[in-house]
Amino acid sequence: MPATNLSLTGESAVVTGAGRGIGRHIAAAFLDTGVDVAVNDVDADALAEAEATLDDADGDLLTHEADASDPEAAAAFVETAADAFGGLDIVVNNVGIAGPTKSCEDLTHEEFMSTLSVNLGSLFNTTSAAIPHLKRGGGRVVNISSMSGKRPLEDRTPYTTSKMGVIGFTRTLAVELADHDVNVNAVCPGSVEGPRLDAVIEGQAAAQDRSVAAVEAEFRSASPMDEFVTPDDVADTVLILCSERTRHVTGQDLNVTAGVVMY
Fold it and tell me: Residue 1's pLDDT is what?
């Protein structure tokens, strides 16, 4: 099958939390299609590694060490990207943390709120700073939620609460920005292969006094395909949602879960 032209060449994007993992794969997918991309992360070493890995792509890459949960740092990141690229067309809110694996009664207020501060605060900070730029010529916002934003996940109250909040933010903003030709959608990945999933499985195994192998098998068997999804599966979906092929798709929360969630 021939490659599909997604008509993104020459556009510019910011991707938060893109030093590694899904964010880096999203940045790579954009760069490979000719999009200029600014990425941020709190981890300077991860940013340096991302720059070394991605710097030979078609689009221009800008790296920026910043904590998106800090409003001033998020705004500075957005403005730096807009100045460097002469505008801004796409925002991908990818930054997020897994939060603690504990029962609700064992959580502290600080543990609960710190997860929301990163997973929802970063989303708000980056998007609100970018809206004036996006409204100038139409744009796209893609928020990375989770299948856990649609269903329970035992001992993960802060995380699931925040990811449900991402979907609410997405739908509301889609209505607010529709008249400005700005589309806002969410992607809800399932269990994505990589170190973060490994840590979640290990944490859940410890909390439930079960073996890591048993918890991993349970996670995998939740899929009708008996598979985890890959970071590239998520990146490809983001790319499509940012293209003209989906200009009438907004306010949606699209699953990339290998069939685990179908609603």
Answer: 42
Cα separation, 58 vs 34, whole angstroms:
5
The token pair that represents 144 in the structure block: 């990375």
Cα gap 135→89, rounded to integer Å:
9
Q: Give dist(CA 134, CA 231) in Å, integer.
A: 26
pTM comes to 0.92
For residues 114 and 127, what is the distance between their CA atoms, to the nearest angstrom? 19
Please list the active-site residues.
159
Domains and CATH numbers, the chain: 12-190+231-255 (3.40.50.720), 192-228 (no CATH)
CA atoms of 111 and 97, how far apart (whole Å): 12
Q: Can you tell me the distance from the alpha carbon of 146 to that of 93, in angstroms, rounded to the nearest whole number?
A: 12
CA dihedral 237, 25, 90, 49 (to 10 degrees): 180
pLDDT at 50 over 70: yes
Of the candidates 61, 78, 68, 4, which has an alpha carbon nearest to the alpha carbon of residue 27? 61
